[in-house]
Design goal:
Blueprint lengths: L2 H19 L4 H10 L3 E7 L2 E6 L4 H10 L7 E9 L7 E8 L6 E8 L5 E3 L8 H12 L2 E3 L53
Parallel strand pairs: 2-5, 6-7
Antiparallel strand pairs: 1-2, 3-4, 4-5
Helix pairs in contact: 2-3
Length: 198
């Protein structure tokens, strides 16, 4: 092992020790106190806190983030769906929250199994969740329990499948058979089997 490799290893170990010595972020501490084992893990990436939450605790965690006086994550910045094709569980939802008052941010991560790609909607906490969740349904096939109108938003009503899933074939084409009124609910491409109502 060269001197530079030894130095790099020592620096990395020192950074790990330094990170371990830092106090736990207040968001992680408060969520662990409130939710217990529903908080699976925490990490720091690029200066931002990431917290992995059990699927069934998402609404409780999000409400705690929004309403706790020490947190006040009042801005739902983004909601993203990730397809980890070949991994179990296959899907992951990522919620980016920001506190306008405290100027801090957190990402909540929720793992979702392929055989039941469903998670609770956050639309009752942040109205901005409406279109984010519709996009995740349309492009990734994630269903949001309790969403009032979970319909396609970027593809059309006759589109088959979910175009951002890693196993979706890019050569697929789905042509419209007629003209649709985008503002008529029964023509807007609702998910099958009443998935919008959970």
């Amino acid at each position: 092992m060269s001197d530079s490799e030894v130095k790099s290893g020592l620096e990395a170990a020192g950074e790990a020790d330094e990170a371990a010595a830092l106090p736990e972020p207040v968001t992680a501490r408060l969520l662990k106190a409130e939710l217990g084992t529903a908080v699976i893990g925490t990490s720091m990436a690029f200066g931002d806190l990431a917290i992995q939450i059990r699927r069934e605790a998402l609404v409780s965690a999000a409400r705690q983030c929004r309403d706790h006086p020490e947190l006040q994550y009042d801005y739902l910045m983004d909601v993203g769906a990730v397809d980890h094709l070949g991994r179990t569980p296959r899907f992951e939802m990522v919620y980016n929250l920001y506190s306008l008052r405290f100027r801090h941010r957190v990402r909540l991560h929720v793992q979702i199994p392929e055989e039941d790609p469903t998670v609770d909607s956050l639309i009752d906490l942040w109205s901005a969740a409406d279109w984010f969740e519709r996009e995740a349904w349309d492009l990734m096939g994630i269903r949001f329990r309790g969403h009032p109108r979970l319909v396609r938003i970027l593809t059309h009503a006759e589109f088959v499948g979910h175009a951002l899933r890693k196993d979706y074939h890019p050569a697929e084409r789905h042509r419209l058979s007629r003209t649709y009124d985008l503002f008529t609910e029964d023509q807007a491409g609702a998910p099958p089997d009443g998935a919008s109502s959970g």
